[in-house]
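Much of our argument rests on the idea that a fold can be written as discrete symbols. The amino acid sequence and the backbone structure tokens for this protein are reproduced below:

___
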Amino acid sequence: MFLILVAVALLAAYIYTKYDKTYNYWKRKGVVQLNPVFLYGDAKPFLDGQICEAENAMSYYRKFKAMGVRFGGVYSENRPEWVPVDPELIKTITTKDYEYFDLHFSEIPKTLFFNNLFHMRGEEWKNMRRKLTPVFTTGKMKMMFDTLTEKADILSTLVHDLVKLDKPIELKGISMRFTTDIIGSCGFGIECNSLTDENSEFYKHGQKLFGTTSKRPTIWTKIAKFLSLTSRHNHKFFFDLENFFRNVVTETLKYREDNKIVRKDFMHLMIQLKNKGKITEINSTDDDVYNKTVAEDGISFEELAGQVLLFFTAGFETSSTTISFCLLELTQHPDIQQKMREEARALWKKHGGKFTYEAVQEMTYIESVVKETLRMYPPLAILPRVCTKNYKVPNTEVIIEKGTTLKISVWGLHLDPEYFPDPYKFDPDRFSAENKHKINPHAYIPFGDGPRQCLGLRFALLESKLGLAMLLKDFNFTLHETTPYPPKYVVNNFIPTVEGGVLLKITKAD
């Protein structure tokens, strides 16, 4: 009994010491913190499944903003996280001092899913960024635009057929099938046919990647993490999906090399990098891309496959989320919906009964609506960063230690009335030519900010504008009574997702 009491006392002393060291970390640094709860830290509402992670991060932002501080400290279970609030500080972090925070997530495994620009850092990132920048020039976007219009036509045909059934339609799934076909064709050179077959392999694997959510941790998992007995991350899920995508890239590359295929898509540009070390124009079938001429400045198969997978994962969810949230808002604002329809129809007629690349560039009002959608519903609602070397916060004595996670609430900034008056009002005119100069560019960051801003943002806007224009040209959208508004979010998804989907009633527009 004595030994048991001694063991209990020692365990209690260890837990108390661990608790004090863990949950007073920020206080000892002189950083304002909230009121962490044992085992949960400040993430209890999220970990208990009451709200999604992005909503939890937004609550941090608002609490520190109400305190009048530029930044604060929180705890995710037993892990300290730094929360910058001031846009000027965020600007400094993401631009001038970005090299101190050139990692998005810690504990990144060396696997295909993470071997890409998003997860690279340092010189490796700089070299790959330099090589990939030419991918999204105007010329390359025009080159891939025919694929986008082909898929937009199929999308329109599908919705026409569904309207005849006179049933409510779940738009998020259809939007994801649309973006799957675009990314599959442009990225992999494969006709996924997701719009005509919702059981297509590409679509199903994309759903696995973004639709499967992690289980909420049990009390025993929390205790194990608090005592540092287990890892915070489980990457087995990504390993399970990797074989499918690796085989697709391998087979596509072999087929193209064996048959000297020249195709105006992302995959061909990656083959150029692999064999030539740089991206050039794709002129004709005489392109000698398969005659490898570089050894050191090219990219490996693993790097090629990693960038193609990044193109898929970044494009699969974000544009479909934007399209579905946009249509959700348009059901509440029929005047905005009609104005978009009129612009789409006018440009369709002006450009000879089709949407050309130039027509999409002229969609100024539709672009304002898309940007307002990205303000209210940013797909990347939390901008993650990891401090990679000790950082002294400007104008303070506070040192952010290497390895500390940052949690920048994009959603918090976008819904802050200081930067966007009446922030819950859906108002595309904020982004009109007359008003957009009033917006603080560092308070509006749906694609990130600074040198690590999303490289494919123009492609994402192009895809979203075209998809919306094609739908609104012919159809009218109203909200089905089973879809709540304001929306309720799936609690375990990193990207804000409407619980139950976005179910809409669709009719032919006058």
Summary: The radius of gyration is 24 Å. Residues 301-332 form the longest helix (32 residues). Residues 217-234 have pLDDT under 50 and may be disordered. The longest strand covers residues 71-76.
